[in-house]
Specification:
about 40% helix, binds 1,3,4-trihydroxy-5-OXO-cyclohexanecarboxylic acid, Rossmann fold
Length: about 140
């Protein structure tokens, strides 16, 4: 399976950013482990701090990947544009959040992405990305 992970703003600071909430590991370190765990699959990773770049990457991915795992970070709670893009493309998109946004500040409890995502995983730390891959494999969303 050919999977693209897209991480939104400030997720390049994992490891140093609010470690009580997001943990002590950088995404780059975690990504090495993730790739070796799912070594028969092709997994790419893209991080951006810009909303439009997420949309461009999702549109490009439509022709290039079997599925996307998306953590839109703070854009989760604001971006109708990203939600519209997910509706417009044919790819399965699994929404992942490291923290449990349903139990955090009120402004984080609304996700425009959950309504349009194929599946959502939250509150399980970085392991949520591994569970998202397992979910895609289990549900045969690999064509
Ligand atoms: C996050 C939760 C968002 O509310 C926050 O803005 C993030 C990360 C998470 O992975 O828990 O940047 O998406």
């Amino acid at each position: 399976m050919n999977i693209l992970i897209i991480n939104g703003p400030n997720l390049n600071l994992l490891g140093k950013r609010e470690p009580d909430i997001y943990g002590h590991q950088s995404f780059e370190d975690f990504f090495i482990e993730l790739r070796s765990k799912f070594s028969i699959h092709k997994i790419d990773y893209y991080q951006t701090n810009h909303e439009g770049n997420i949309i461009d990457k999702l549109q490009e991915a439509d022709n290039q990947y079997d599925a996307v795992i998306l953590n839109p970070a703070a854009y989760t709670h604001t971006s109708i544009a990203i939600a519209d893009c997910i509706k417009a493309i044919d790819l399965p998109v699994v929404e992942v959040h490291i923290s449990d946004i349903s139990k955090r500040e009120t402004y984080r409890q609304k996700s425009f992405i959950t309504e349009v995502a194929t599946h959502t995983i939250m509150g399980l730390g970085l392991n949520g990305y591994a569970l998202a891959i397992e979910w895609l494999l289990k549900n045969n969303l690999n064509q």
